[in-house]
Design goal:
It is built from 3 helices and no strands. With 83 residues, it is mainly alpha-helical. It has a domain of 41 residues.
């Protein structure tokens, strides 16, 4: 008789644990879906924030000699080609 009681209590506990896990999984799935929908909505101009940026933007005000040479090469304005 004690064996039947142990079996019944164990079965009830396992059923309760299973139901608890199912409720937890359903709750997390709903929460994850809401977060995904909120994070992947279309962006409206002016409402989204842009991250990043140059650390020292003033260094881009004037190009250095190397950048000027690269631009001249890309544009085909090399002094060697004109000679």
């Amino acid at each position: 008789m004690a064996e039947d009681t142990t079996k019944n209590v164990t079965t009830i506990l396992l059923i309760l644990v299973f139901l608890g896990m199912m409720i937890f999984i359903a709750y997390r799935a709903r929460q994850n879906r809401e977060n995904m929908l909120k994070n992947h909505q279309p962006k409206v101009a002016g409402e989204d924030t842009l991250e990043g940026g140059a650390r020292h933007p003033q260094r881009f005000d004037e190009p250095d000699d190397e950048a000027l040479e690269e631009m001249a090469e890309l544009l085909g304005e090399d002094s060697e080609d004109e000679s």
